[in-house]
Amino acid sequence: MPAGANSEALAFAKLEREVVEHLFRFSPGFAVVLGIHSYDGLLPDLGARAVSDWVRTGQALLDRLGGVDGKALTRDRQLDLELLRLRLRSDMFDLVDYPYLDRLPLVYVGPLELVPYTARPYASAEHRASAMVRVLEGAPKLLKTGVQRLARPLPEAFVKIGLAMGEGLVPHFQESEAFVKAEAPSQAAAYARARGEAEAAANAFVEHLRASLPSATRSFALGPTLYQKLLSVREGLSLSWQELEKEGWENLRVNQARLAELASAARPPTAPQALLESVARDHPTASELIPEAASCVTELREFVLKKGLVTIPTPEHCRVEATPLVDRAWTTASIDPPGPFETSTYEGVYHVTPVEDSWDEEKKEQWLASFNRPVLRNVTAHEVYPGHYVQFLHFRAHASTLTRRVYLSGAFTEGWAHYTEQLMIEQGYRDESAASEVAQLTDALLRNVRLLASVGMHAKGMTVEQATALFVREVHMDPFPAEREAMRGTFNPEYFGYTLGKLAILRARRRYLETRPGAPLSSFHDLVLSLGAPPVGFLEPLIFGEPISRPG
């Protein structure tokens, strides 16, 4: 170790703690999700002065990171240095380059979710209910800040998704009160008082959004320059958006060709769309959806263990519930995993979005058809076994430094889960008919078009209507779910990460197995998951011990 390396390492460890504390100051809810419960009940101050102070301090921390002598650090700590730098640049991008606090209503809604406090018994019910009360007590200030900051004209797509999520707040607060009354009655009166003020603020916020609709603009895009920077700060990539789009189209055509092969091999032969329609007819009823998802969890866990595809850290258990009301506007299914700092619970919660009673019969049928049984199994592989839940169990077990525990790449995490869908087909899961592969290809096509819609809408001027038509044409989706997908891409351009991450993992797998003939596939999977959740631009250098290039 070079002279002075120890002092440099100690100085970097101190700086690391400062950076992480600074990140949590802006997003205390993320700390709670990670399992750091000293942040329970805290909300961010998103006012102009507080954010300006945060940006100024963030830039100073970036400058100090730039002054660290990386050669005096171990390779592991050199990685942490780059991850901290990238994470700060990512948050600065959001606040400076693309000031989403002035444009995106849902950023004022998301921190008010109470699910982190009800999902798992990480602490006493009284402690968790007390944190919920503090969230509700802080809701009026946060929502008032949103009213003040959301400058008209707002993007129409952002207003609509903000309305859909904002309208879910009051039912969500009411829904969560049942937990307090049943499990922490000593907090019931305080919760009821705080809920009244929070609901009034939520209703005022929703009315403000409604009033902004007549003046709303159809402009929402990042534009090609900011989109290119997004690829750099989020995923450590120097890949151009044009190259990303090219990869998306190529993979789309590969998947479409395979679907056409399956359609031709059907008896009698049929067209791809007709094959998809035949699979979609095998769907659960509204009342069967959640129980069948639970059955899928059990079945897939047994398959993964039987095949020995990846180590499943123990203890482990995942339960299935309906998606909370506040999240149903934009999510189909999701996993709420235990965070890497969580020590008292290992349970995951798999959320599946049910049909809404308010939908007409056509929408209900379209939603259930999109959740047909083969697709439901594929989604469960993605979210639970061997997808996200297994991934986060490894994350808890292997993230060995403070930086590694707080850095989460969207493309890496979604890429792994999407990769496992294909892995199940490769390993013969439910191969007695073509339906499982048809479902896997359906979701692969969806993720392909998410990438193409993201590039199209944010770098090439594609409209929401054109993106909706792209999902209908290339994925054979019904108009209602296709429009939801297009709308999601307006505020979540990073949904390119499913395909981007999956292709990166497949490239790394091919290279790994070529250089290690005879190595079991599980060794690759365990190695990948031992890395934590690094940006996909760092994936191969980490696996193969190569230098990490600094993008941007």
Task: Show the helix and strand layout.
Blueprint: H1 5-26, H2 28-34, H3 48-66, H4 75-97, H5 115-118, H6 125-149, H7 156-166, H8 169-183, H9 188-212, H10 224-235, H11 241-265, H12 272-280, H13 289-307, E1 317-322, E2 333-336, E3 347-352, H14 361-370, H15 373-383, H16 388-398, H17 402-406, H18 410-426, H19 435-459, H20 464-475, H21 479-491, H22 497-515, H23 521-530, H24 539-544
Parallel strand pairs: 1-3
Antiparallel strand pairs: 2-3
Description:
This protein has about 550 residues and is mainly alpha-helical. It folds into two domains: about 210 residues, no CATH class; about 300 residues, no CATH class. It is about 65% helix and about 5% strand. The protein is built from 24 helices and three strands. A three-stranded mixed sheet has the order 1-3-2, with helices on one face. α1 packs across α2, α7 packs antiparallel against α9 and α11 packs antiparallel against α19. The longest helix is centred in the first third of the chain and has 25 residues. The two termini are about 30 Å apart.
